[in-house]
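EI: anyone free to look at a 249-residue chain?
SC: sure, send it
EI:
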Amino acid sequence: PYEYQVVLVSLTLDEQEEYRDISKEISRLYSITGDMNNINPALLSRRSRLLGNAQNKITELEKLLQSKKPEPYTLFYCGEGSHPLESEIDNDEEIESLRQIEAVTSLMHAYNWKSSKYTSRETKNIRKDIMEVFKDGSIDALVAMKCLDEGIDIPLCKTAYLIASTNNPRQYIQRSGRILRKHPDKKQAKIIDFVVEAPMYDGSNIHDKRLIQKELKRVKSFTDLSLNADETYEQIRPLLIKYGIEEEI
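SC: here you go
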């Protein structure tokens, strides 16, 4: 059994504009080929990273950490790519960036969480050592990207922050599965899902609506089996009304 919490995250206006531009180009290419497999993977990846690393996710995470005490056996899933440092711009060149995982780790340290990064950048032996201290409770949380998606079996894990998650069911089911294993000392688990929306919804722009529709597929999947489904549906009802999609969830 698990509780499910939705954290709504608005794109910045610049991010929304970029999302629309990328989506428009993807739609244009699809109209020509009729096959998503023929779309440049770099274009799809760029859109995915944009959503995964939305700037306001860090802001919303900080709001949560301000009111929560550190909890052992917690997982934080971050996006691939970068979290922009707007203060470091060099002559209109590409903005220097800090990986979202670094921003999350820094934030957790500020709120007294004992955490460790768990990524492909750490060697296999180091990851093994990190996992051991996580299992024995010496650190509260692991901050990861893809390394925790498969092959990790720690039944005591009970909370997952999905700061970034694709709308690929296989991935988000794997990630939730890390904390849904039963253990005698665990009564229930909790999934905290960061859901992205457009700040300036334009009913005539199909891409704004498609964005929330894709996010809500994941929300519905988690909500239907959660302990607090009614509460979650009430929370997102204004969002459904805003986008005119009440019947879709």
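EI: The beta strands are 2-10, 74-77, 83-84, 97-98, 115-118, 141-144, 159-162, 189-197.
SC: 👍
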